[in-house]
Amino acid sequence: MNGQLPECWGHRGASAEFPENTFASFEAAIAEGSDCIESDVHTTSDDRILMFHDVSLERTTDGSGIIAELPWEDCISKVRTLKAPHQPIPLFEQALDLLMRPDAKHIKFNVDIKPSNEPERLFELMARLVKKIPNWETDLAPRLILGLWHPSFILPAKRHLPTATLIHITASLSVADEYFFPHVTGFSVAFPLLLTSTGQRFLDKAKQEGKSVGVWTVNRVDEMCVASKLGCQWILTDRPAIWRGVRDRLGQDFESTYSKEVPSSFWYSTPTYYLVAHKLLNYYARKKIIRFAGPLVRIPSPA
């Protein structure tokens, strides 16, 4: 294989082992050799930014309610994860402080911007906190990667955080192609979408236009090997230690490792690899982001 192997991006930290989107998970991802930590953001009613995936608290914590309707002070600040070790929900500024520790200054930070957020408000709050970090322009900004789902977030992101890298997170290659190509440097794509001829054409176009492509969420060794062979730039995984180990093996002997881990039946082994599943994924992905953030809008290409 020619070229570098994909980077290791810890999905919500090392979330297979630790409560997702917590310091325990983030610190484990760093210790396990991640190149990047991925996390999600939501704003509270009192303008605090939480590192949290869901719109509401119930699935992963002992709290309840919609985050946007609840304050941090004397409410969400007391919530703990259901999964042990029981952790508080981190704030965005606390995550930035973690990234500035000596052992984490090489770590990139991929912030998944959920489409339920109000973009102007969120990015203004984020920018205010980023600019409080000493030497943020050189020590933090180059590591900040904003993952956008909806095109209405593009211009507010560029306005408030112009130095951040923008990527599009997608479960729909048609949305990526129609609305994001001129505006982002890369794409974080649901892994199965790249396994068809449509996915290969998308990869070829991205390569021709100098765009990076990574995949989410990949926890199986065979899928890690296939993503590497496809030429992806990063693999988003709940299991950073597993991917680091596989990556080391691929680096030592790519072909023999690939042959050992990827059976000839791989391409037919999982329902989500089939085109009909991709059509359903595209339909529901479009429906979901429109439900949260409104109709899809084409942003004029940069001059």
Automatic annotation (TrEMBL):
Transmembrane segments: none annotated. Pfam families: GDPD. One of its GO terms (biological process) is lipid metabolic process. One of its GO terms (molecular function) is phosphoric diester hydrolase activity. InterPro entries: GP_PDE_dom (IPR030395), PLC-like_Pdiesterase_TIM-brl (IPR017946). Gene3D superfamilies: Phosphatidylinositol (PI) phosphodiesterase (3.20.20.190). Residues 6-247 form the GP-PDE domain. This is Glycerophosphoryl diester phosphodiesterase. It comes from Phaffia rhodozyma.
